[in-house]
Amino acid sequence: MISRFVTSALFAGAAAGLIAGLLQLVFVQPVLLHAELYESGELVHFGVEAVSAHPALPGFDPIRDGLSLIFTMLTYTGYALILVAAMSLGEERGAAANGRWGILWGVAGFVAFHLAPGFTLAPEVPGVAAADVGARQVWWFATVAAAALALWLLAFGQGWLAWAGAVLLLLAPHLIGAPEPAQFSGPVPTELGALFAARAFGVGLAAWVLLGSFAGYFWQREGARAA
Amino acid sequence: MTSTTKTLSLTGSKLVPTLFAAALGLVLITLTGHVQAAALHDAAHDVRHATGFPCH
């Protein structure tokens, strides 16, 4: 039984993680490298001289980008393990988990793990001012847990009490607010920060949809094989 | 019905692997996305930013 969880999560996580990592390298990494030129002071926003919006960026770095690919695959394998656990619980309550329904599971995962925390604690480009990392991590975990529980209640809860609780769980972290820095002193142009957040969300959604579909597919296939 | 008893007996045997998978996934995300040890942070730096984890 455990092998069904681990096998389907490993296949789905590795495949979706590899695609996520490649999408990040193409669409997110150039924005990140550009921002780092401001973070390091190599470029100065509103400095004495106007700076081109199209500087020469360091190209593909095998070690740095290879590590990024590996860590993205590991991260998505972690997501996949949680997702198949949720699928297993959902199946007991009559929800389908296969390649098609997995798309919906993936969107839910994106909402819980990316959109909910990122709605207030936007994906950070390097060089932005931010509050203490420990405090932000606590807020991040709490928000993800609240959003995941809320989505579960929306999908499987019965009655207005469950749905009202879900709405409250979705709203609360954002009404309370995330840890914010005392001053906004980041040196990075706002255009780069906005593009970075948009790209991070876009790649995240694409990767989660694939992850959900892959996880559902392998979850069903491994289940059929074991039966 | 046999299908009912099968579902019920599955519930118990599924609980442990479900919890195990969820816990393992959480540990993995914490390691790749959140632990601030220098080596891990540096190796996962770009991923943490691109995935929307709080980084530094």
TrEMBL record, chain A:
<keyword id="KW-1133">Transmembrane helix</keyword>
<feature type="transmembrane region" description="Helical">
    <location>
        <begin position="137"/>
        <end position="155"/>
    </location>
</feature>
<feature type="transmembrane region" description="Helical">
    <location>
        <begin position="160"/>
        <end position="176"/>
    </location>
</feature>
<keyword id="KW-0472">Membrane</keyword>
<dbReference type="InterPro" id="IPR012666">
    <property type="entry name" value="CbtA_put"/>
</dbReference>
<dbReference type="Pfam" id="PF09490">
    <property type="entry name" value="CbtA"/>
</dbReference>
<protein>
    <submittedName>
        <fullName>CbtA family protein</fullName>
    </submittedName>
</protein>
<feature type="transmembrane region" description="Helical">
    <location>
        <begin position="101"/>
        <end position="122"/>
    </location>
</feature>
<keyword id="KW-0812">Transmembrane</keyword>
<feature type="transmembrane region" description="Helical">
    <location>
        <begin position="67"/>
        <end position="89"/>
    </location>
</feature>
<feature type="transmembrane region" description="Helical">
    <location>
        <begin position="196"/>
        <end position="219"/>
    </location>
</feature>
Automatic annotation (TrEMBL), chain B:
<dbReference type="InterPro" id="IPR012667">
    <property type="entry name" value="CbtB_put"/>
</dbReference>
<protein>
    <submittedName>
        <fullName>CbtB-domain containing protein</fullName>
    </submittedName>
</protein>
<dbReference type="Pfam" id="PF09489">
    <property type="entry name" value="CbtB"/>
</dbReference>
